[in-house]
Amino acid sequence: MSQLCTLTFTDAGGTQTVQNNIVRLVFRKDIYMAGTELSGTVIREGGVSGIVRVRLTAGGRMIHDGYLEYAKAEHRNGRTLMHFSSKGWSYLLTQNEPVPGLNYQVNLTALAALNTPIPNVTYESGTLTVNYVSVKEHSTIWDAVSAYAMKAYGTQPYIIGTNEVSVTERTGADLMLESEDIISEGTVCDRRSILSKGYMADYDGQYSVSLDNPEAAGTGIVREKYFAFDRQWLSSLTTGIQMRFDRTGRRSEMSFLTVRGYGGEEIFDNISFMLYGTALTRTIGGIELQFEKQRVTAVYYTME
Question: What are the C-alpha distances in Å from 146 to residues 29, 96, 287?
Answer without folding.
Answer: 18, 14, 22
